[in-house]
């Protein structure tokens, strides 16, 4: 067999990423350093184009929304036996455990119902990967980098037919200084 024939045979070629099976769930863990680098670059990109903290959080949330739509699609595809949840708590549990674990390697630390309003829930992460490796300038100290995660959750809820507004809030304490809580407020019309 000549060298040119060996190169053209399928077994000799490298597998193209587009040829890989989406159902393959082996080794789905993403390198934390790669994730941190990409998030840092995305953060800097958004920061250069933003006019203030609210605009920056909106841009991060928009980036997260794009990721969330794709994450929902991929997760539903991988779980072929999945069906559309029709209860709020089921969807929130799905996000709290399955989605969070797929994205961050562990489930979220808590899922709570709001005490003031029936249509509010909170998902908290004591040590979010989003906030671990970024340094926020002093003039942006009120910024919550968790806006990216809020965008992901909002997209998954919208895609699951539960329209909601999701915002990220820094709720750090002495034990968990970078703790982030996502406040989920469902639209009354979509419930």
From TrEMBL:
SUPFAM superfamilies named in the record: Ligand-binding domain in the NO signalling and Golgi transport
GO biological process per UniProt: endoplasmic reticulum to Golgi vesicle-mediated transport
Cited InterPro entries: NO_sig/Golgi_transp_ligand-bd (IPR024096), TRAPP-I_su5 (IPR016696), TRAPP_component (IPR007194)
Cellular component annotations (GO), alphabetically ordered: endoplasmic reticulum; TRAPPI protein complex; TRAPPII protein complex; TRAPPIII protein complex
Pfam families, alphabetized: TRAPP (PF04051)
Primary subcellular site in the record, as a coarse category: endoplasmic reticulum
Keyword terms of this UniProt record: Endoplasmic reticulum, ER-Golgi transport, Golgi apparatus, Transport
Subcellular location: Endoplasmic reticulum; Golgi apparatus, cis-Golgi network
Keyword Transport: yes
Origin superkingdom: Eukaryota
Subunit-level organization: Part of the multisubunit TRAPP (transport protein particle) complex.
Family the UniProt entry places it in: Belongs to the TRAPP small subunits family. BET3 subfamily.
Protein known as: Trafficking protein particle complex subunit
Organism: Rhizophlyctis rosea
Gene that this polypeptide is encoded by: TRS31
